[in-house]
Structures are given as structure tokens and as C-alpha cells.
Write a structure and sequence with these properties.
By secondary structure, this protein is an alpha+beta fold. Helix content is 18%, strand content 47%. Strands 1, 2, 3, 4, 5, 6, 7, 8, 9, 10, 11 and 12 form a twelve-stranded mixed β-sheet that branches.
Length: 148
């Protein structure tokens, strides 16, 4: 009986600390789904992409040959990155009261399906996507970008 109680306490303690690591102040969004080879690069740190992991401005989403990752940002924008992608979230600022902000993403390679959120609805010039050859201003709500 005592062993069961100690095990339960250990599991509860781990679960609490794991979820505390997943959601932090300053998070701009979080991973909703990840499959295969998918990670987040934060400076020199490589974090396995997993449901619930928080994102910060400056993070880079990286998927390998078998990887896919889906992300929801605080303004309800959604990204779905396909295999062999590298996507940097260069700037994300969002005021949840006014719905105003800025959202700048760089897609270096791969593909991403995007559903814009409240930032793009509040200001047609606030959400931008950079590729190696173009700068896209988001005017619509759903689109796909592919960079070879």
C-alpha cells in the first residue's frame, strides 16, 4: 500500500513538473500535434516537438523526412508544417484585448499551410511571411506556402 502511495505521488509530481515545462509565461503559442521527426530549435537548444510544448518568439520549427507539426498561436493563427520544413517565427506580438499585433515568419524550406488569426483580421498589414525570394502580406485567411 505504501509503495502505491509513493508511486502515485511520484507520478503526480512528474506530471505537474512536465506540464509546467510545457506552458511558460511568454509563450506565443503551442504545438497541437507532432509526428515523426519534428523539433523546435531555440537558440542552440533542440526541443522535441510534442503536443503542448510552448513556442517563443525566435523559435524555429524543423521537420525531417517523416516529420509534421501543427501549431496554434495565441491569436488563433494555425500552422501545419509538412516534411523537410524549416520555419522561423521571427516576430510575434499580440494584444488579446485589441487583437492588434505583428506576426513575421520566415519559411526557409518546406511547406506550411496557414490559417490566419486575429492579428491579420485586425490589420491587413500585420501578418507577413518571408521566403528566400519573396515577402508575402497576408490578406486572406487560408493559404499554403511551399519553398523548394
Amino acid at each position: 500500500m505504501r509503495t502505491r502511495v509513493l508511486l502515485s505521488l511520484a507520478v503526480a509530481s512528474f506530471s505537474t513538473s512536465a506540464s509546467a515545462q510545457l506552458r511558460q509565461p511568454g509563450d506565443i503559442g503551442r504545438v497541437k500535434v507532432a509526428m515523426g521527426d519534428a523539433r523546435i530549435e531555440r537558440g542552440i537548444t533542440k526541443i522535441p516537438a510534442a503536443a503542448g510544448v510552448g513556442l517563443k518568439t525566435g523559435d524555429v520549427l524543423v521537420t525531417g523526412k517523416t516529420g509534421r507539426v501543427g501549431v496554434t498561436f495565441n491569436d488563433n493563427s494555425r500552422f501545419s508544417a509538412g516534411p523537410n520544413s524549416r520555419i522561423a517565427v521571427e516576430d510575434f506580438q499580440f494584444d488579446s484585448t485589441t487583437h492588434k499585433g505583428k506576426f513575421l515568419t520566415r519559411i526557409n524550406k518546406g511547406s506550411v499551410a496557414i490559417v490566419s488569426g486575429q492579428i491579420a483580421k485586425a490589420d491587413k498589414n500585420a501578418m507577413r511571411i518571408k521566403t528566400p525570394t519573396a515577402l508575402l502580406g497576408v490578406r486572406g485567411t487560408r493559404f499554403v506556402v511551399e519553398v523548394n
